[in-house]
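Dear all,

This email documents one entry for the complex benchmark we are building for the journal club exercise. For each entry we list the sequence lines for every component of the assembly. Then comes the predicted three-dimensional structure of the complex as a token string, followed by one or two observations. Please use this as the template for your own entries, and keep the labels exactly as they appear.
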Amino acid sequence: SQTIHQWPATLVQPVGSPLSLECTVEGTSNPNLYWYRQAAGRGLQLLFYSVGIGQISSEVPQNLSASRPQDRQFILSSKKLLLSDSGFYLCAWSRGTGANVLTFGAGSRLTVL
Amino acid sequence: GQNIDQPTEMTATEGAIVQINCTYQTSGFNGLFWYQQHAGEAPTFLSYNVLDGLEEKGRFSSFLSRSKGYSYLLLKELQMKDSASYLCAVRSSTDSWGKLQFGAGTQVVVTP
């Protein structure tokens, strides 16, 4: 069976500090990978998606970036965090075929102070 | 782009039925999904509709009318553990690799 791991679960960072959130998927190959953000009381906003190693598409302009160094690894980064970067970050994967159901990781709650 | 509308909150009694409506506008439709999200947790997949009609999964059913841009999620025999946010999400036919646009979610509160 497939599993998705995401860490860290919680972090508090000062404004201007860097960020790295990591996500890995097990039990499948060549998954589609996604980073979503959910602000308090808001819907899920798609930040980045990837259909293969080194292939990253950005949905919204921001000071975040994503990388996919390995087939089942997806990393969300920032060089300098802003207050507005606070939120609940969710990594997800899908097969890329059929119904393409998204399966989410447990999420990372980021508070920027 | 897509506009997805669903009510902000609904309250119902344990054992009752609740229907959560979702309307959407999209340039091309290729599937509608419902997810459940408990507070502080990740969303979990509930149902998928791509053709008109009703899909039933135990206590949960989902309906789709593509011509009306309308779906609903029906929760029957409500239990306290059903208190959660329910997210409607739509996939556009122009997004061949499966990108979803989510609504803001409907918070369902189940009372004793």
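Observations: The two ends of chain A are 39 Å apart (CA to CA). Chain A has no helices and eleven strands.
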